[in-house]
Structure formats: structure tokens, C-alpha cells
Amino acid sequence: MARLAGVSQTTVSLVLGGNKQGIAIHEDTRRRVLQAADELGYVPDPAARRLAAARNNLLGVFSFTTTFPTAVEHSYYPILVGVEQEAAAQGYDLVLFTGSSAGRRAAAPGALDRVRLADGCLFLGRHIPAQELRKLVAHGYPAVHIGRRDELAELAWVGVDYAAAAAEVVRHLADFGHHRIAYVREDDDAPASTDREQGFRDAAAGAGVHGGVVRSARPATDITAEWVRARRDEGVTAFVAEETDTGAAWRALYRAVAAAGLEAPRDLSLGLLGSPPADLNGPGHPEPTGFDVPRAELGAAAVRLLTSLLCARQGAEPLVTCAFRPGVTAGAPPRSP
């Protein structure tokens, strides 16, 4: 075609691609290229046109966890199910970026560049390499984080209304008559943990409940049977723990209560701000009072937001609401002997 039109192959590509680069091309040259294309019966290849437009109908998913959460028992797995279902409904395929997520490699310079193979990418994880993500978004790459991320104002995100859900659990305990509640959480500043704690504190203050917050970097070591007994001696009648992808806070509290020879709700009440880890869920384990995170809907909402960014549409997604779970671990405080 280039030979027939008497121009270079580059000029042919520019003309047939719509000259999105804005390079000056003489009208006579453009007309010769189009005439040659017509004579040769040229039909544009749809796949090639998508590539030329940097669009291939692929959405990326990048996890900052040390192991990509493909195991069914992983708390992120239902999110991926929602992502997959919504992506398929909107005509997109998925690319799972697993190689760069292990350890600290995600924070290395250029570690996130591989996601550009996809039209846009979803990110998830409690802790993120803010500098690398900021550079990616600053270059105009469509990205959405699953979970609130206020530290990067330029990064779009969808989140869960953890504060409201945590507050509902506290009010439930207060309605039973609990006036002193201890809250156990991991010692970091992940937004999901911060939101839960804020909801706990706001509801405790509103209900006239004394609520102490314990932040622990090593819950398995710090939250022991002796610790539980000491808090009860101080007048604490209910204990609440956060859910994380490790399940460390709830697991430590659950085992410490059992080691102390106590039972909920007979001797104390327990609340879990989220769902229990797989090894503490099901037969043999009481269903904890708390709330369930609609993870599949969270993943679907993230896909809808990302595709709206790709199509330059307004696509603000509201915070996803959690469903309260009555469970069987909360009741009235035990009577004083």
C-alpha cells in the first residue's frame, strides 16, 4: 500500500490510524493513501485498532499481599469473585499480576509498570507502595484501589463503610447493658483499621460506654488468658476485635478467652468487626456477633468505577454497606457474684 501511494509505511499508519498524534500531513498525501487502501480492498483489523488505541479490553488486578489471594479461604477471594463476574458482564478479561506482589518488590522502582499491559488496573492490600502508585496515576493510567486510600488524593478507590458497621456492633453491646468494652486491633495505620476504630470510639462515646483500645503488633503474644482476666477484674464485660487479612487480633482474643476457661456470652460478650478467619469458622466455633463485608459487591463496584474511568464517565461509587450479624457471642453482662 505504501508503494502504491508513493509514501512511507509510517505515513500509511498515521493516515489509517486517524493521525491521533496530530502530525501535519498534506491533504494530497492523505488522499493518495486512502485511494490506495480502497484499491487494495483494505479492511481495518479490529485487534490492531484496539492496540493502536492502547485499548485491549483487559483489566489488571494487582495484590500487595505476599501471596496472591487465590485460596478460597483467603478474605480477599470473594472480592476477586465479584471482580471476575462484573468484568465478564462488561466484556473485559482479567490479567492477574502475581510476580511483583511478593515481599517488598512492589515498592521497587518501576515494579508497577507491568500493569500497563492492561487498559486499567485494580489494586488491593492493607499497605501500598504510595510513591510507585502515585507515579502511575500521575501519568494518567486508570487505577482504582479496593479499599479507602486517603493518602493518595489522586487515586480513585471504592471502600466499605467500616465506621458505621463498627458503631452498630458497639450499640448492640450497649443495648445489652455493657458499659466497659475493650477493643483489640493490630498496630498499624491501615485505613480499614482506622475506620473501624473511629466507629468504635464514636459509638462508645454516644452510648456512654467506656471503651479502651489496645493496639498490638503481636496479638498472639500480648492478648493472653491473663490479659483477659485482668481486664475483667477492671470491669470490662465485653471484648471486640477487628478483622484483617491475617485474622491475628480475633484469633488471639478467641483463644485467650478459651484458655481463661471463659465462654461467651455466659461469662463475657465478644464482637468481631468483620468475618472470622476460615480456621475459626463453621462447626465447632460459635458464630461471632459482628458484621459481614459484602466483598463480592465491593469487587464489582471497583470494576464499575474503573470502567467508568476508561470511558471518561462520571463513576463515583458509594461506600459499600455491611450487613449486621447477630451471632451468638453477645448477651447481657454476667451478674456480679
UniProtKB/TrEMBL annotation:
Highest taxon above the source species: Bacteria
Molecular functions (GO terms): DNA binding
Keyword Transcription regulation listed: yes
Record's keyword terms, sorted: DNA-binding, Repressor, Transcription, Transcription regulation
Domain HTH lacI-type: 1-53
Record InterPro entries: HTH_LacI (IPR000843), LacI/GalR-like_sensor (IPR046335), Lambda_DNA-bd_dom_sf (IPR010982), Peripla_BP_I (IPR028082)
Protein name from the UniProt record: LacI family DNA-binding transcriptional regulator
Upper lineage: Bacteria, Bacillati, Actinomycetota, Actinomycetes, Kitasatosporales
